[in-house]
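Same chain as my last thread, 269 residues:
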Amino acid sequence: MRESIRQLRLIRDLRQHLLPREVPQIGGWRIAVRQTPGAWKGSDFYDFLSVPDGRLLLVVAGGSDQGAPATALAAMLRMILHSCPLSSGQERLPFCPFQQPGLQPPHILLGHVNQVLAENSLEEQYLTACCALLEPQSGTLLYANAGYPCPRFWRGTSRAVEPLTGPADLPLGLHHTTTYHKRRLELDASDLLLLVGEEVTAARSPWDEAFGAGALDEAFAAAAADGPEAVVDTVMNELLQFVGRRRPSGDLTVVAVQRGSSVGPIPLL
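reply #2:
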């Protein structure tokens, strides 16, 4: 029993070590993240990579399993992202012998990650993921979706919440030949993008009711005008009140990105 507890603690510590220590903030933008661990930690992963040319790469992912299997996939994903010029935008000799490394668009990155995971994961083990590349000056967001829950979008001018429609491609790691579609979003001042893990809408109350996309959109719309920090706090508070003592099996992850004022780095809570 003691050894089992020790192993679970090691998995918890590794999972925490894989996540960023703080949320990077870039001029004219605000980013906020909240995550509440589930009964089995390690199902969700997120990361930010600041590219030398000023762009920001954002990746959110969820495992097909919890605990050690999901943590192992997250570790592989992080290693790929940070070690290869295709995703880090920096030369990483001797791992990738490119003389002029360059960050690739999200749909190409997901294709690269998919091939590696398909060759190194167990059968039927996979990651859902959304990969986005933000160009701060223009407000252009290029993204690709590998089976991840559909992102939500709040337009500051209309003050309405809507999903970013379009079919999600297959999760990462299922088939090494899978390709991913390039998508584009233009964010204006006060526009806000929301990404949540699968467990958010799937979370169930003590009466076995699902939280659902409707409750998520209501919480999002109620707090969007107050900024991303208010959004992630409101969504998480509504979720925790909804589930009560029924702790979700997987992690609850909420990420919000808004075009707004410039601030310094914000530590994760």
